[in-house]
Amino acid sequence: MVAPLRLLGDRLLSALQTALPLDTYPEPLLLPASQAKFGDYQSNVCLSLAKQVGKAPRELAQKVVAHLNVEDICQPVEIAGPGFLNFRLKPDFLARSLQAAIGSDRLGIPPVREPRRVVVDFSSPNIAKEMHVGHLRSTIIGDCIARILEFQGHDVLRLNHVGDWGTQFGMLIAYLDEVYPDALTTANALDLGDLVTFYKKAKQRFDSDPNFQQKARQQVVALQQGEEHSRRAWQLLCEQSRREFQKIYDLLDIQLTERGESFYNPFLPAVIEDLAALGLLVEDQGAKVVFLEGFTNKEGQPQPLIIQKSDGGYNYATTDLAALRYRIEKDQADWIIYVTDVGQSTHFAQVFQVAQRAGWVPPHVTLTHVPFGLVLGEDGKRLKTRSGETIRLMDLLTEAIARSRADLEQRLATEGRSESPEFIDTVARVIGIGAVKYADLSQNRNSNYVFSYDKMLSLQGNTAPYLLYAYVRVQGLTRRGDIDWRSLSPDTPLFLEDDTEQNLAKHLVQLEETLDLVSAELLPNRLCQYLFELSQLFNQFYDRCPILSATEPTKQSRLTLAYLTAQTLKQGLSLLGIQVLDRL
Ligand code: ARG
């Protein structure tokens, strides 16, 4: 499919260049129309330019339209109101671009012209701590962003910046040495649940017992010096956590390369040395810090970013600086995306600033923090279990699957259907996991989102089950009509006569521009909205236009529309990390 937005944008630009040569023009030149009465696409470029060149906008519009060559795409362009340009796509343009998508495994969408090397840093839980719903959001959103950029042809490195280093290991090893030494020498002696409990107890000891504090600190030093027992213990603890994390990634179908904080340990001293050589590093109460621009404390004094603590230890920011340099120099990244909760926005702004001022970020490199809001319970407060504990991710996902299974079994009973246990397992899992992912992705990530099993599993509204149903409707046509989709040919004539056919066709050709928009803003909810509207438009078409009972050549035309809808839903959902099913 050819993205009409890009095609029309190019044409409009060349008309402007002839009618009104300027060095630059306002962006964007063209937008999807906000209301049907403005056509399919609209431009207010003449209004924006009028002031600049001192001409009446309508007069400018007439000049531009006189040079605009779009007869193959649109009806005659309309100049509306004070000088808006309204574009209406021609049915045969729509038909041609849809035909181009038949038989293409990318729905005719070409890869981007300039692929980038992108690091997406997401998920990134902490060892010996439970993965929580914040990590779930990071995992779901980060995976979706990575999938979209990959589809567009970028070279993506998915990195799991696991918190696998720090003083917590000193505490944990010192504690386990006392109470459960086997855990530090034998693999599989603990599971992550135990580890989290041990961690809490170790922390209590640390806060109340100076003797224990001393031991924990010695363990940190031993670990840093690579002492055998401590190293081995640390490795075992990491492996325990890793196994638990992997179960979640498998269930969610997430691919990630683990490269934890410890990986950057050898590169930390150079961060200090180089910042010192640049004259950016300052001693402040025994610590080595960089004073930040634009960040002040309550007294209005510049705030420091601590790079090395007074005890010589490094911290989260130091590691992020080392990681950033490594990703640019060694991984050759020209775009680094960090997906974390909004609470870390200041951290990233500060790290980015220090890296920029140190000259470590070449001009072609983009650094982007992708923040997201909290997960709330239906009571509007932070999501917790009934007893007030943080929810374990595994429990949350298992519950989603269990509820989706219960819904399914009830539906089967009402419909008097009997299905195999494998069918029930698959459907329950695909819907349960898909619902959790979709509920998260369909919200603007910047806001908090309310976690509700009932809403996310509902067949009505902007939910995964609603979209999956639209897909299944098309698969139903395949079965009832005994259709072999491979027989559809790009030469199939398409008749877009009914309004519902035209609206569906117009929406179908917008996938590419939707993806462009999503990757420019890194807002997956825009793709969800697109797919939701696609399902609605398809359902309107399906209710209004008979398909299998239509006579040829209308039947082939309608089947093609249905087929392209299904392919678009499948592609779109797969970019969200959601599988489709042939039957529900
Ligand atoms: N481990 C951190 C946390 O749980 C997230 C790490 C995000 N990535 C980064 N490069 N700092 O909050």
Question: Any overview of this molecule?
Answer:
This protein has 584 residues and is α/β, with parallel strands linked by helices. Among the domains are: 4-89, Arginyl tRNA synthetase N-terminal domain (Gyrase A, domain 2, 2-Layer Sandwich); 167-255, no CATH class; 264-372, Rossmann fold; 464-575, Isoleucyl-tRNA Synthetase, Domain 1 (Orthogonal Bundle). The chain is built from 20 helices and 14 strands. A 5-stranded parallel beta sheet has the order 7-6-5-11-12, sandwiched between helices. Strands 1-2-4-3 form a 4-stranded antiparallel beta sheet. The chain has a 3-stranded antiparallel beta sheet with strand order 8-9-10. The longest helix has 25 residues, at 228-252. The structure holds arginine (ARG). Residues 121, 124-126, 161, 163, 320, 323, 338, 340 line the site of arginine.
CATH class of the domain at 464-575: Mainly Alpha
User: What gross morphology would you assign?
Assistant: globular
Count of β-strands: 14
**What average pLDDT do the residues reach?**
94
Listed once per kind, the bound small molecules are:
arginine
Q: Sheet with the most strands?
A: 5 strands, parallel
Briefly note the structural class of the backbone: alpha/beta
Count of DSSP-assigned helices:
20
> How many whole angstroms does the radius of gyration measure?
28 Å
CATH topology description of the domain at 464-575 = Isoleucyl-tRNA Synthetase, Domain 1
CATH-level-2 architecture of the domain at 464-575: Orthogonal Bundle
Q: Indicate the percent of residues in helices.
A: 40-55%
Task: Please name the fourth-level CATH homologous superfamily of the domain at 464-575.
Answer: Isoleucyl-tRNA Synthetase, Domain 1
Low-confidence spans: pLDDT under 50, at least 5 residues?
none
**Strand composition percent:** 5-15%
Q: Tell me the distance between the termini.
A: 29 Å
**Widest sheet: strand ordering:** 7-6-5-11-12
